[in-house]
Each structure stands twice: as C-alpha cells, then as structure tokens.
Amino acid sequence: MDSSDTTAQGITAIVKRWLAVFADAAASGNVKAILPLFLKVGWLRDILVFTWTHRSLRGHDAIFDYLDNTLGPANISNVRLDEDHGIKPNHDPKLQMIEAALTFETPTAYGRGHIRLMRDRDGKWKAFTFFLTLDDLKGHEEKGPESGHYDGHTRTWNEVHEEEKARIERDPHVIIIGAGQNGLNVGARFRQMNIPTLLIEKEDVVGDVWRKRYPSLTLHTHNTHHTMLYNRFPTNAPKFTPRDKVAAMLEHYAYNQDLVIWNRTTILPTPSFNSITKRWTVNILRDGVKVTLNPYHIVLAIGTLGKPWIPPLPGRDDFRGTSLHATNFKGAPPFAGKKTIVVGASQTASDICQDLASRGAASVTMVQRSSTVVVTCEYTVQQLESIWPMHSDPLVGDFRSASMPLGLLKQIEIGRKESRIAHHKEMLDGLLKAGLNVNQGREGAGQALLVFERLGGISWLDLGTADLIIKGAIKIKQGTEPDYFTDKGLVFKDGSSLDADLVVFATGYEPIKNSIRDIFGEVLSAKVTPVWGLDEEGESRRAYTPSGHPGLWWAIGDFMTSRYYSKSLALQIKARELGLVKD
C-alpha cells in the first residue's frame, strides 16, 4: 500500500488493496492484522456494527481493546468498494488524503462504511478515520415510496391512510413526545421501517413551536443542511429559512409523510414500565380526555432544554415597564422609541438586540456576564457547504459528517483557532473595543463544537449585530448581572443601574432533568440524564442510543442530527423487536 499513483485508477487500486486486507482480517477475526491498517493516531467510529451503540476509538491500543472481543462475532463479509452513494474514491492534494466509501454485510444486516487514508512516515496508505455503520436489517429493509395505486387501484389513499391511522392509534409500538423537527424526522423514518408510531404534540398545529418564537428568527445554516428527511427544498427557496417558513415546512411535512399525530396532547405523570412485558402504561391527555396506551418504546423529542428560566430578581412586580423571557418576545415594533435591555449574550439575545436596534428603539443594551464566541454566519456556512453543498443530496453530507469522530473534529477546530481569529480580526477587535468579551470556545475549538457540547450556547452566528455593537447602536454592559428591579429599570451587582421600558431575559432554560422528573419521577430522571454534550470518547451522551432505561430514548439535536441518526434509532428498536438485542 505504498503506491504514489494518485490518478483515479491509482486511487481506486489503493483503496481496494486496503479493503482486501481489512476483509481478510475481519473474516478471520484477526485484530492484530487490522491494527497495521491504521495510523498510530487513527480513529475507528462504529455505529451498531460491533456493539449496539455508538463508539469512537483513537489509537491502536483503544481500537485493539474494542475489537478484541467484538470483531469475530460481528462476522463481517462481502466488503466492497462503494461508488453508488455519492462518494467515489478521490484524492485531496492539499490534505494528501484519499476518501472512499464501502459496503459490507453481517449475518443479519447490510452495512456501509467510509475511510480516509493518509500516508505514514514510510509512505504507506493507512486509515486516518474508518467508519462503519449498519444500514439495514436483512428482511426488514427500509421501504421505498408507495406506488399510490392501492389494491390494484380499487381503494383510495384516504381509505388506506385512515385504516393505518386507526391501527396505530389503537396500539402504537412507539410514542414520540414532541412533533418538532426531531420528532417528525424520527417518525418519518420509523414509518419507512414499519414501526407503528404515534406522535403527540402539545401545540394546536404542527410547527407552532416555531411560529411562537420571535419573528426575526431565521435559521443560520443553509437550507441543504436543515432540510427534512426524504425532502428537498425548491432550488429557488431562501438559502436561510425564516421562522414562518420553517413552521409551514414542518406542518406540510407531517401531512406528506402520512404521520399519525395527536395535537393538543400531553403525557401525564407518571408512566410505568413493565419489565416482563417490556411495555409502558402511559396516560395521555388528548383535548382534555384521558387516554391510556401501552407502547413498547417512548422517544423523547422535546429538546435538551427545560422550561424558560428567569432569574428571581426582587422588585419585578414594581417595575413599570415590560419584562419577559425571550420566548415571549413577539417583535420590536411596539418598543420603538423605548429604552430596552436584553440580558444575555448568545444567539437569541443577538437576534433580539438587532431587531430592537433596527426598528427604532431609543436605546438597546446587551448585558453580558461572562464571554461569548462570535463568528460570522458567512464563515460557518462556508464550512458547512464543504460537506453539504447547496442543492446537493443532504444524506451524502450527513454520511460524510457522521464519518468524522467529534473528538477528531475538536482537534481540527483547535488547530484552526489562529486562522479563525485572523478571518474575524476586524470584527473581534471592534467588539472588544466596544466592551464585549469574546473567546474562541472550549480549548479554542470555536463555535462548531459548542453545538455538540451545549447546543451552541454562549455563542452566536453573526448577521449584523456585531456591526451595530461596533457602531454604538447596541451598548454593552459587561462583567456584571442584574441584582434587582426598581420601578424604572434594573440595578446591577456592581452597583450601577439602567432605566428601561423593556427588559428581555435571554437567560436560557432550566435543566431538562427537571422536565423529565416532572413526568417520570426522580428515580428514572436520574437514570436518563444528563443528555447531550460529549462523553469521554466524543460521542453525544444518550442521543439516539440507550438512555439508561429500557424502552426510553432521546431524539435531540439539530435538523441534520435527527435526519441521520433516526436510522440508528430505528435499527435499535427494530433489533429489539426481532430479538437481536436484549435490554
């Protein structure tokens, strides 16, 4: 594997030779023969192939320990180069890296894989990253589109759909709590995997969870990145989708995917799980009527944030102006000519400050207690478009993204710190001069890793707020926090004060554990939280993997996360249904 031929034919030959050695070692269960295929700092990422969860391993020792007792039982066979799913063998001369995809089988499943090869010091091509994932269970493959002609064109879609709906409502195999983008993506995937699923949603209409947010909200990633599963945006759709279009997209998606959803419905305390039958007893309040169901699984698609949190400041009732949490901010026009304060310095605070300053507020002050990561939207989208080009198949980008262990991504982003600072130098210098405290994220890894560590908290993607701060249209009050209200405004812990007609608290949310405790009780809540953030291997904690309690799962993250990892979750549930996995 020491070829220096990087023509298309040469690259293909290099990859095929690597795969052949891997295939022989996998067939014989010879872990020692696999280790020389990896760089000493190489990574293996596994989704459900060797164990029924998600793992990331770095370095020969970790990879050996992981595969020592799992490679043989996996029975990997029929390893082949894959050129049919949007990734052909290619060579990046700048990185001196070869990328390719593969397919394989196990006795019970079909799988896919992705590899990045780099030369070692001896010039031999070895794996920098190697990713393997189950793709389908044999005999239970994900179904494709329906023909639309039912029973020889003798029955209507309405009749067929109503029968399916009634059957699911009587006895759902899975209940998904929450019909936002994550619940809908998972629900659509489950339907294609023949897993009878009922979604319950507290709002009147699917999409209302977005319609009720602040009106200037626009998604800050391009639409290929935030499209829904099985879906594509029109080629003339806005690159960044506005709030109401997001809401409409979700509403239409639920209809087009034939999902069974109960609106105005909430789960009541406290569901119980029968460890013998493996079924829940769940009481649900639907339009004021109590309904009892017995699913095998409950999927929590309620996000990672609890109830809106406002600091309990004394004197709030005496304040003569308006004070509210950012979730209740309905737009800037009523506050034209008014003095306004926004407490917080993350994405929502940035958007609301920009809205107020642009729509004639007499003054806008952003209160920043600590420090914030600020990057331009343009910079972030440029990075994303290298993986998800506009109008491309998002599933190809999802697969590429999943093949990159987050622990490695963190190392890469730390290495980009100085170039990221240089790119934003003028903006960052201006913000610092205006009084905003900025940083480059944990260990210098920037904003990208904060998405996985804290869902982007303490950061914002900038679309103009920074310029308004630099020009003085938005003032910064830094290094302190509110202490109490007066009738005219806020007094801060440093003894200073500000008069205000409006105080918006963009102060985040209670821990999700509180919401889970209210539904499931203290004992179960402690088993299935914390959620999100990264574990010691760089995998997302409890997301689309066993939660810590049988039959209870988390579906969380952004659009891309649920679009891709809904397949892993469906496979895990289907495997339990088939007896391939025991809890």
List keywords for this structure.
583 residues, alpha/beta, seven-stranded mixed β-sheet, five-stranded parallel β-sheet, 19 helices, 28 strands, 32% helix, 25% strand, globular
Topology:
Blueprint: H1 8-28, H2 31-34, E1 38-47, E2 54-58, H3 60-67, H4 71-74, E3 77-82, E4 90-92, E5 97-105, E6 109-119, E7 125-137, H5 157-170, E8 174-177, H6 181-192, E9 197-200, H7 208-211, H8 243-256, E10 260-262, E11 265-267, E12 272-274, E13 279-286, E14 289-293, E15 297-300, E16 305-308, E17 322-325, E18 339-343, H9 347-358, E19 363-368, E20 373-376, H10 377-385, H11 394-402, H12 406-415, H13 417-423, H14 425-434, H15 446-454, E21 459-462, H16 465-471, E22 475-478, E23 482-485, E24 489-492, E25 497-499, E26 502-505, E27 509-511, H17 512-520, H18 522-528, E28 552-554, H19 559-577
Parallel strand pairs: 1-7, 8-9, 8-15, 9-10, 15-28, 17-26, 18-19, 18-26, 19-22, 20-21
Antiparallel strand pairs: 1-2, 3-5, 4-5, 5-6, 6-7, 11-13, 12-13, 13-14, 16-27, 23-24, 24-25
Helix pairs in contact: 6-19, 11-19, 12-15, 14-16, 17-18
Description:
With 583 residues, the chain is of the alpha/beta class. Helix 6 (181-192) packs across helix 19. Helices cover 32% and strands 25% of the residues. The mean pLDDT is 96. The protein is globular and about 75 Å long. Strands 1, 2, 3, 4, 5, 6 and 7 form a seven-stranded mixed sheet that branches. The chain has a five-stranded parallel sheet with strand order 10-9-8-15-28, sandwiched between helices. The protein contains 19 helices and 28 strands.
